[in-house]
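Obj: model holo form, ligand = alpha-D-galactopyranose.
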Amino acid sequence: MIANSRMDAFRSRIGGFAFGGDYNPEQWDRSVWDEDVALMKRAGVNLVTLGVFAWASLEPEPGRFTFGWLDEVMDLLHAGGISVDLATPTAAPPVWLTHGHPEVHPVMEDGETFGFGNRLHFDPTSPRYREHAARITRALAERYAHHPALAMWHIGNEYGPTPYTPQSAVAFRAWLRRRYGTLDALNDAWYTRFWSQVYTDWEQVNPPEIPRSWSNPTRRLDYKRFVSDALLECFVAERDIVRSCRDDIPVLTNYMRFYRHADYWRWAPEQDAVALDIYPDPGQPDSRVAAALNFDLMRSLRGEPWILMEQAASAVSQWKVNNVKRPGLMRLGSYQAIAHGSDSVLYFQWRAGRGGHERFHSAMLPHSGTRSRTWREIEELGGELPRIAEAVGSSSTAEIAVLFDWDAWWGLTETHGLPRNDFDYPGVVTDHYRPLLQAHHAVDMVGYGSCLDGYRIVVVPNAYLVDDRFTEELTRFVRGGGTLVCSFFSGVVDAANQVRRPAYPGAFRELIGAHVDEYWPAREGESFGIGFADGGTGRADWWQDSIHPETAEVAAWYTTGLLGGRPAILRNSFGAGRVHYLGTRPDAGTLARVLLGAVAGAGVRPLLEGAPAEVEATVRSGADARYLFLLNHSETGPAGVPLPAAGVDLVSGAGADGTLTLPPLGVAVLRIPLPGSGAAPAGSAAT
Ligand code: GLA
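Output (holo structure tokens):
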């Protein structure tokens, strides 16, 4: 783990898991604030995020600041023993800024101006926006830097809009000049002799014309990279201002689940901790899988514990039907985040608002007040989390890594002109992650810049675009004895989105030990039988590689269709390592068979043996003990979990050995002392 003194200071100040949420006192009369603080104390709240969208209340006119109310709220919270994550309010520019300077508004992909009345209605490349954002940030930071309630800086909120404005064109050109240096290099990278697109002057280069979907694919790709960097510049500018006023506390912003527009591998090193907002759909039980993946991604981005910045106490208000979280589900989801490395359980929001778009969004304190199920569950969880406080700051390790990279995503889904153009990259990665989660394996996520040392197996799903650095790292990894599971249409193009030569799949041809002469997307409704050498069978659909083994052996063949008798799944030896290649999209059972077979072949053991798939298991390791998190996602049935070691369930306080039974939606956090740390329970076989 990287040394992180600011987060260490934060953890020791909070003294356990941070618990609380977004607090918007500016939406309420002063008379409510005392009750808020009293109820926060009752619920065990120790951290609130203040001021996220309060710009209009803090600076009602340009340069006139009204901090009085915030002074009072900060003092009240401090008196109540509650720490503050103080936000810069720059995600929602006030109307005086946008009305006075319409160029602050972004123009969106479809050419429409994103007008006033929502939030995130700013163009991150607008110098005017940046100037005003810097001014409110400085004023806020200078005033509160040394307030005793201050524990953390929160910059903006869920950075987002992708602008297509004249000023973003200027910024794009500057970004391209930094990337390519010369127009010749840009023309080469963008392959501009195609359709006579050669540029002869930088001024001719513009953002992609999105509605005409057949625009230059490398320009589109670079635009995604550029926008992510432009948003990051906004974060960094505000971060540097708050740090110049106080630099011993963490600075961060909050990310979103599977968020397409910001490359979080580039963002994460710029902040002191990664933070995530997550809203798994309670109407979709399988949404817990994508939640777990996102949690693992957050932990992996910096290789350390992260902050769950927002979740819902119950229903959200942004979907067509907003289901409630049934009793126990909010608690389970909170432990799930902790299990995957979060050091907090925070919500949007503390008190349910009476108006505005989110008036029916749940809150820790709902409209119905303390006589409500949600409040009871919040109060119970707030009372329970201190029991596991010793696990805060503990780390996790994994021997399996799954690739999740934004360049891979953008190449596959943003640039058109592929053999098929309906890839769902997060869906594909989730499909490869699900069997590992259900088989109780610890998993890290990696990106193209990650070092693969320490892993035994790396899973690379549909990585169409790969850069040379990752290709080299992966090759080194396999040559040195690692195992790779790679799925079709991977390694095909380079970082400039140009087809690698001399044959598909360029970057991975030697690793896979085969070449592909044609990609055969399946026809609507078409599926194929596949058969393994041991007589096992399965089905596949969506895609077929017409593949020709070179050094690889065939693990499974198509048994039907035009490619009947030809290879579907390959195995190759490369250096001291092994490669499993899926030339098609197998059904879930077949995918699990290949993945789990490869995992077992690589010598990776699951965290649990013999537990049902609905039980999720993770381990966090502290100085004296390991913490085995066990979560039963079944809403209806109890689950018997054969324990790998004896320990004490910190949640119930009971000792556990043999088989532990979890009730539906039940949770246990088993403390297993490390050998030599004393007090190992009798019969402990902790490994
Ligand atoms: C996001 C935002 C919050 C709120 C919630 C609603 O996470 O950061 O301000 O809008 O969504 O679910």
